Amino acid sequence: MIPAPFSYVAPTSVDEALAALAEHGDDAKILAGGQSLLPVLRMRLNAPEWVIDLGRIDSLRGVRDAGDHLVIGAMTTHHDVLHDPLVAEHAALITAAATDLADAQVRHRGTFGGSLAHADPAGDLGAPVLALGASFVIAGPSGTRTVPGTEFFVDLFETAIGDDEILTEVHVPKHTGWGAHYEKFVRVAHQWPIVAVAAAVRVEGGTIEHARIGLTNMGSTPLRATAVEEALTGQPLTADAVRAAAQHAADGANPPSDLNGDASYRSHLACVLTARAVLAAGGADG
Ligand SMILES: Cc1cc2nc3c(=O)[nH]c(=O)nc-3n(C[C@H](O)[C@H](O)[C@H](O)COP(=O)(O)OP(=O)(O)OC[C@H]3O[C@@H](n4cnc5c(N)ncnc54)[C@H](O)[C@@H]3O)c2cc1C
Prior knowledge:
By secondary structure, the protein is of the alpha+beta class. It has helices at residues 14-24, 37-42, 78-82, 85-90, 92-99, 104-109, 112-118, 126-131, 149-152, 226-232, 239-246, 263-282; strands spanning 7-9, 28-31, 50-53, 63-65, 69-73, 135-140, 143-148, 153-155, 158-159, 166-173, 179-185, 195-204, 207-216, 223-224. Strands 4-5-10-6-7 form a five-stranded antiparallel β-sheet. It has a four-stranded antiparallel β-sheet with strand order 11-12-13-14. Helix 2 (37-42) links the parallel strand 2 and strand 3 (50-53). Helix 10 packs antiparallel against helix 11 (239-246) and helix 11 (239-246) runs antiparallel to helix 12 (263-282). The relative contact order is 0.12. Residues 29-37, 54, 74, 101-102, 106, 110-111, 113-115, 117-118, 123-125, 161, 166-167, 191-192 line the site of flavin-adenine dinucleotide.
């Protein structure tokens, strides 16, 4: 289907984009890579009068080193994140998740910030950024604010970004030297996960010293699996110990039931995939 007619503006700065948002209010929609928005417009599930394209704002693109954390611009494409050496070195969990995110075509258009702002609970980037303790920089009419990951994801397709605000960058604390793995369970290739687990571990002398685990599609938002993180800490990196700790993976989760699997199947998957992800992240055989 063809989208309903809309007016289009492509500002070249965040201030201009905010001014356009302020002017057109509820009648406007931000466009990033368009990989989620355009299908919605084509199905006429949304019909904004104005589309504000962030594609010409160069300051929103790229990855930079900011000391103890990386700054990832909201308009950095999945492809650029996937191939960025800073991300690979200091936030390998994000590289791992981006590897299996959609297909090459979508990765060339879709953006890091667009994906997180869209907040699909099956999206592949929420769990890794949450697990790594990322924070979100949001620009609005009264300036810029920084929101922790724990407050960014509010509900299904809902974030802390206000109607008059724009996500500009994501700050990801460095996890240099940590092992990382994203274990994604799909029915067919290039799909959103039925369940996925993002695991980053720091292993010293065969013992798991720190673990950070994020869950995809186990609730209305990405989740941090704190119970399993605690259960893993101090355990030897062996299949038996990791599988026992991973039994806590679904604690506190509220997974959906749909044609791909019911809630109890997803809970089972979360435990199995967590064990696999942790063992792979630590470099051990499953
Ligand atoms: C065939 C196909 C397969 C896919 N498979 C996967 C997959 O396996 N895993 C996965 O995670 N994703 C998948 N995706 C989605 C993909 O990751 C998209 O890139 C992502 O969902 C949206 O990013 P975008 O840059 O295209 O944003 P858009 O589609 O342009 O925008 C999405 C929403 O976010 C808002 N928005 C965008 N940027 C900002 C901003 N900076 N500030 C405030 N609001 C903003 C928009 O207004 C819109 O509501 C797939 C998409 C397609 C088409």
